[in-house]
Design goal:
30% of the residues are buried. Helix 2 packs parallel to helix 4. It is elongated, with a radius of gyration of 29 Å. The protein folds into two domains: 145 residues, no CATH class; 108 residues, no CATH class. It is an all-alpha fold and 313 residues long.
């Protein structure tokens, strides 16, 4: 029975197109935070021009340099440059908190206290306690001491959010790299062993599995690529799991294992059989079932290996 449904170059083109699309998605994720950064820079420049920015225009050259770094088209700006720009802008903002008038310092301390109260962890709770103590201190702390506390609290909050976005962006980059590797292996299997239908059904199973999980999750304020990373990787992982799952099932249904009935060995010779397509889809859909299959295969292969010689005493 013919198992080569399409030419090998078609599989190669489809895999390459998917890898290119995944890379473009990763690159495009830099566009929203870059646009937000540019808007923030323009806002700060407006404050400087209007004279409402402390110390006048002394920071204009440095802020303008940050703007030049991210002013290119989104495809030419790495995510690292955007996040570095955010850290620089946050640094400028935090530095000038020391120049605020006392009444604004107290108001922003209360705002920072509310924001930090929603952040889990002992460090945020420590800042909340320090702000409460500073606002209730008798005699009152000096304006300089309250401004310094505000600056420390804002630095902590900015570092926390910047690190979170950097980690999520790094996760997306790793997912794209793994996707490219998985697609390369999938294309190699299709070129050398054919049976492309197993790859297609496994990819469909992986994508449907991830989509169903995303639809059931509680919406988040901003994922910055976290959900995209799993959505990009799932079809490629599902394609591999589906193809390899059918291959392992066929092997376990044959001599010398005979774990499954002979029906599970037939899809390898006729890749259009519904049983083989179902097996590929199920293994692409369920990581847990695929792991159970690997456990069975490991047990069966280990049972066929010769026993280790007992140590001589």
């Amino acid at each position: 029975m013919k198992t080569d449904f399409v030419a090998s170059w078609v599989v190669l083109v489809v895999g390459g197109a998917y890898a290119l699309a995944a890379w473009l998605v990763q690159m495009h994720r830099v566009a929203p935070p870059r646009d937000w950064l540019q808007q923030r820079i323009w806002y700060l420049q407006t404050l400087i021009v209007s004279g409402r920015w402390p110390k006048g225009s002394a920071d204009w050259p440095a802020i303008e340099e940050v703007q030049k770094t991210v002013a290119k088209r989104w495809i030419c700006v790495p995510i690292s440059k955007v996040q570095a720009g955010w850290r620089n802008i946050h640094g400028f903002e935090d530095l000038h908190l020391l120049d605020l008038p006392p009444e604004r310092v107290d108001a922003q301390l209360k705002t920072a206290r509310t924001r930090l109260a929603a952040v889990p962890g002992p460090e945020a709770a420590g800042f909340v306690g320090r702000i409460d103590a500073a606002l209730k201190a008798t005699p009152a702390l000096t304006p300089a001491a309250r401004a310094a506390l505000l600056r420390e609290a804002e630095i902590f909050r900015h570092n926390l959010s910047d690190s979170k976005y950097e980690d999520l962006a790094s996760l997306l980059g790793k997912a794209v790299w793994l996707t490219v590797v998985a697609l390369g292996i999938a294309v190699g299997l299709a070129v050398f062993f054919d049976r492309e239908s197993f790859l297609l059904l496994g990819a469909a199973g992986g994508l449907i599995s991830r989509l169903s999980r995303v639809l059931q999750r509680r919406p988040t304020a901003s994922d910055y690529g976290a959900e995209w990373s799993t959505l990009i990787l799932s079809p490629a992982a599902g394609a591999l799991a589906g193809w390899v799952g059918v291959a392992i099932t066929v092997a376990l249904a044959s001599e010398p294992f005979n774990v499954f009935t002979d029906k599970f060995a037939k899809p390898w010779d006729d890749a259009t059989l519904p049983l083989g397509l179902l097996v590929a889809f199920v293994f692409g859909f369920s990581e847990r079932l695929f792991n159970r299959l690997l456990d069975v295969a490991q047990t069966q292969v280990g049972g066929q290996l010769p026993q280790e010689n007992a140590p001589v005493t």
